[in-house]
Each structure stands twice: as C-alpha cells, then as structure tokens.
C-alpha cells in the first residue's frame, strides 16, 4: 500500500528562532507571502498524500487557525472581486484533510510521531520535518514508491563532511549495499560526536515509515535529556526488517534558523514571476 497520510511534527517551540517564535509559530513564518507550513502541505499533496496529521502544541493555536477553513473571509473577498486571493484562501484546509493532535510536552521526535498513531492507523505514512523545505515533491514521492514496492520503510540520506554529522542521525550501511545506495541500514546513532560517527551518511527530514514503527516507539527509553528519539525506534525496526536509505541531492532549505530561512525566502522570491525580476534588480543595485 502507498502512504497516503503525511505526519508533520510541529509542536516544537522554535527556540533557535527567538524572539519572533515567542508569538508566531515558526511554521507560519512567511516565505514571501506563504507560510512555510503551506509549502510542506503542498509537498505532501504533490507526493500523493490526501490526509495530513499535524502534531501541534496547545501553545501554538495559530497553526490550527491557519488550516481551519474560513468561508466568511473567502465570501468577503469574492464580494470585493478579489477572486484570485479568495481561491488561494479557499483551498487551505479543504484541498486536503488536516487532522490535529497535540503533543502535551516536548519529549522528542519519537514521542511526537507516537502522538499521531491513532490518526494514522495501520498504514505506511510519510513524515515531513517542517524545518526543512524542498523545491518539489519528487523526493517524497520516490520514498513513497520505494515503500510501496518493497513493503519496508524508506528514508532519505545525504553524504556530508564529517564536521557536520553531529547535528543529525547517522547510519551504518550494510556491507552489501551498493556504493550509491539504496543502503540497507544496519545501525543508527542520534547526533554522535564526530569521532564516534559510523559514517558520513546523515538522515534528513523526509521519511516514509511502515506502521510497525509505532510498536517500537512504545518501547523507547528516554535519552538523558528526556527525549524519545525516532532514530532508536528505527534502529529497533531495522533489526526486524530492512530500512532502505536513499541518497538524495534534492534542493533543500533549513528554515529552522534565521539564516536558512532567509535563503529560502530569497531563493523563492527570485523564482517567482511576481517578485523575481524586481528583487533581482534591487539586489544588483544593492550589491553593486
Ligand atoms: C531530527 C532527527 C535526526 C535527523 C534530523 C534531520 O533531529 O532526530 O535524526 O537527522 O532531524 O533534520 P532534530 O533536527 O529535530 O534535532
């Protein structure tokens, strides 16, 4: 079966982005005039998902407000003859079903995914970490195809310089894996020190997981910081059946930090016909 539900864990408080995230959920920060969350929803829908499970926090009611249809505002815009904006607003929360569940305390990615269990049910599902934006849904679609074809979880991997590995989950590929993947995953460690890292292959923010992952999440023991790590559940899953890691080179913006977000805004604005030419001219003038 192909994944049709996308889980988006969005309960984090965005401390790397304070002070703005004191009041505005980081997923609602604008990429030009579209919140990052909308780009994530579009990616999931583009990869074939027709249902979203948003794992939110009660401290972030703005997320729920954003995905709740608002027919009154849409009608008012139509009265004013502003059909183009009305069409865009009317699509939010109606072009795809969005269910919300709450993660009551920040207890790590494994815990956040576990919160979605009842809403996902017994089906493979996509997992999109909203701190990362992608140019298109191709990668997620490829992972969903892989999972459908093989019946096992499929994740995205990237080779990075060893200096960067300690911010990520890092895998050990099986010796029999082809040099350019897909890699059968033999081991995973979460944020190892550079000298302890088993490889230069890191896990990024797109996954398609089979539902038996929830049983492994139930068994998780917290790390010293109190968090339940998804990578521990994936390691347990990989001991029962394979997980396939696909090397990707997809374009990606890390919007969890102010600089990464800025690059996403500039790149996206440069590509849009309504803002690109003007921004390009302004930048040329500014940069001399
Ligand atoms: C999470 C995962 C980590 C993964 C990373 C990708 O970490 O725990 O395994 O490599 O996302 O961005 P976080 O960035 O939430 O600390």
Structure described in brief:
With 288 residues, the protein is α/β, with parallel strands linked by helices. The chain has helices at 36-46, 61-67, 71-79, 83-91, 109-115, 117-120, 138-150, 213-218, 230-240, 258-271, 276-287, and strands at 5-9, 30-31, 34-35, 51-56, 97-102, 125-128, 132-134, 154-159, 169-173, 183-190, 201-209, 244-247, 252-254.
Protein model, in words:
There is one protein chain. With 288 residues, the chain is of the alpha/beta class. 36% of the residues lie in helices and 22% in strands. A 9-stranded mixed sheet has the order 5-4-1-6-11-8-12-10-9, with helices on both faces. A two-stranded antiparallel sheet has the order 2-3. Strand 2 and strand 3 form a beta hairpin. The mean pLDDT is 94.
List keywords for this structure.
288 residues, nine-stranded mixed sheet, globular, 11 helices, binds 1-O-phosphono-alpha-D-glucopyranose, 13 strands, two-stranded antiparallel sheet, single chain, alpha/beta
Strand order of the largest sheet: 5-4-1-6-11-8-12-10-9
Percent in strands: 15-25%
Secondary-structure element order, N to C: EEEHEHHHEHHEEHEEEEHHEEHH
Helix content: 25-40%
Largest sheet: 9 strands, mixed
The shape is globular
Q: Which stretches of 5+ consecutive residues score pLDDT under 50?
A: none
* Number of discrete helical segments: 11
Q: Look at the helices and sheets and give the structural class.
A: alpha/beta
What quaternary form is this?
single chain
Distance between the termini: 55 Å
Ligand names? 1-O-phosphono-alpha-D-glucopyranose
Computed Rg: 20 Å
**How many β-strands, per DSSP?**
13
**pLDDT averaged residue by residue:** 94
């Amino acid at each position: 079966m192909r994944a049709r539900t996308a889980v988006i864990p969005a309960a984090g408080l965005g401390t790397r982005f304070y002070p703005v995230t004191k009041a505005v959920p980081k997923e609602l920060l604008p990429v030009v005039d579209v919140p990052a969350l909308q780009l994530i929803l579009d990616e999931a829908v583009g990869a074939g998902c027709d249902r979203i499970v948003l794992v939110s926090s009660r401290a972030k009611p703005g997320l729920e407000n954003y995905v709740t249809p608002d027919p009154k505002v849409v009608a008012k815009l139509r009265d004013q003859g502003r059909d183009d904006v009305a069409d865009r607003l009317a699509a939010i929360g109606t072009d795809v079903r969005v269910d919300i569940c709450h993660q009551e305390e920040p207890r790590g990615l494994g815990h956040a995914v576990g919160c979605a269990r009842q809403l996902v049910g017994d089906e493979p599902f996509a997992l999109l970490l909203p701190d990362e934006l992608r140019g298109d849904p191709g990668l997620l679609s490829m992972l969903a195809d892989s999972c459908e074809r093989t019946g096992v979880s499929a994740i995205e991997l990237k080779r990075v310089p060893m200096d960067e590995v300690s911010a990520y989950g890092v895998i050990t590929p099986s010796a029999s894996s082809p040099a350019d993947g897909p890699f059968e995953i033999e081991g995973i460690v979460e944020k190892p020190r550079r000298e302890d890292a088993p490889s230069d292959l890191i896990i990024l923010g797109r996954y398609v997981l089979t539902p038996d992952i929830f049983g492994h999440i139930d068994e998780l023991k917290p790390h010293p910081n109190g968090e339940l790590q998804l990578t521990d559940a994936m390691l347990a899953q990989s001991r029962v059946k394979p997980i396939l890691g696909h090397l990707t080179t997809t374009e990606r913006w890390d919007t969890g930090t102010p600089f990464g977000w800025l690059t996403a805004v500039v790149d996206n604005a440069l590509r849009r016909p309504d803002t690109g030419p003007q921004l390009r001219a302004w930048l040329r003038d500014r940069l001399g």
